[in-house]
Amino acid sequence: MFAKPDIKEVVAAAEAMGMHLGSDAELYRKYLIEHLGELDEFVQARMDEGKPPVSYAAREPGYRPAASEDQFNAWLWKCRITGAAEGLLAGKTVSYKDHTAVAGIPLTFGSFVMEDFIPDFDATIVTRALEAGGTVVGKHMMNGLTGGFGFGGGIGDYGRPRNPHKPDHLTGGSSSGSAAALVAGEVDISFGGDQGGSIRIPAALSGCVGLKPTFGLVSHFGIGFGSDPSIDYTGPMARTIEDTAAALQATAGYDGLDPRQSRDVPETFDALSTLTDGVQGLRIGIVDEGYVDAEADVADTVNAAIEVLTNAGAIVSKVSVPEHLAAREAQNALGAEGSRALFESGFFGAFSRTYYPPSLIAAINQVWANHVDLLNPRTKLNYLVGEFSRRNYHGRVYAKAQNVRPSYIKAYDRALADNDVLVMPTCILKAPEYVAPDGNEAALQEALGRLNAASRNTQPFNYTGHPALAVPCGKADGLPVSMQLIGRFFDDALLLRVGYAFQHSVDYDSIIGIQN
Q1: Of these residues, 174, 178, 389, 482, which one is catalytic?
Q2: What is the pTM of this model?
Q3: Beta strands in 83-199 (DSSP E)
Q4: Rounded to whole angstroms, how far apart are CA atoms 183 and 175?
Q5: pLDDT of the residue at 448
Q6: What angle do CA 175, 151, 244 make, to 5 degrees?
Q7: Chain segment 284-293, per-residue pLDDT in tens
Q8: What would the pLDDT profile of 466-481 be if each residue is shown by its tens digit?
Q9: Which residues pair with 140 in a beta bridge?
Q10: What is the pLDDT of residue 153?
Q11: How many angstroms separate the CA atoms of 169 and 439, rounded?
């Protein structure tokens, strides 16, 4: 039975929404209780809500690995779910950032308060990986709801994943555990999440491949992070281009469950048939603005990688995209109000005709209602910015940020009209040394300082939707350096082809290998 609000609760709720009921308060309470009674009957009714099927449902619950089994603190949970006997991912192990639903396996979003929640459905990228023959082996640490140990923040639950190249340095986040486990050779393929670089930044700083696909190409169903859905992605990470391409081909395509997928998204996607075609005659544009404030050894290492592509037959030239340095401002304007709205609408949004996972939505809403103060400092600040942006500008900031997006898309499209691929450093800096923050002020300074620098070249493509691939291309001072390839919409396979050509033109093992 629902709780009947007393008159004080009704008045307070109305005032929180800017309404003053005055002498009619009791009248409103009367009809409110009637409506709540109808809602209670509806929610209690035994009706078939349906749910996505769970493939390969015979699965053990798994376990939380001990520290002795997890030297880089990369794993939140280990399990073994065996998929089809044959397929693109047969013989490959697959894991997920812990914002992805795997039926029967805890889903925490990086928060202690969520660790007892067990989803009863699989995200699309789980279903498709299993159907392609992959073996799901676990979930990874992340910089999530109460996290902050990935890159920026340094305050959160479950501890800090460590960079396998130099454990006292950051892995990059938020898909930090995925990157650490991949580089350590503990899993073949991992699916991360990217809201401003959260696949590509850990790939760059830890030394693996990371793809943020074209917007909508890979279904986001069953995945949540709390970001505006128009800038939120999932995509594969791996040590090699081959595994990244196979993972993309196995999971990409329209599924009808992710409302952000337009009908431009193909039913299936071929990422492998052109992988070995080389770069002879391909036009590659070096984006000048992508080098602004880059560390000298990062710029030099990326330029050396571009020279490898030139020697392989690519036609390389410089190109200017002035909008590159301003795009992140538009996304920040959009992201603050968007994440704040998602905070209120139930973490998976609203208004679309799709399947809404009720148990997960209820669990997250209880976190919002009862534990919101546990959010990390950067997330709290972001929600405050969104709240006061809405109060001061009444939605105009969010509307403008959405409405000017096409002008930024066109800026990159102009550069891509004369070039097949654009290139720049993935991150303008190497993995910084980890320094434990002394309280929230230091955590915020970290989040707003080095994190902003790390995402300078990644964040614009969350906003525009272009595919972007991080490829490890060398080391400086023993730390990985990465080049980022950007392409036209749905040209993800071409980016992988360029990455493959580079990978097989160098001593790639020495680039990604861990020094003992």
Answers
A1: 174
A2: 0.94
A3: 93-97, 135-140, 189-194
A4: 13
A5: 66
A6: 30
A7: 999 999 999 9
A8: 999 999 999 999 999 9
A9: 75, 97
A10: 46
A11: 20
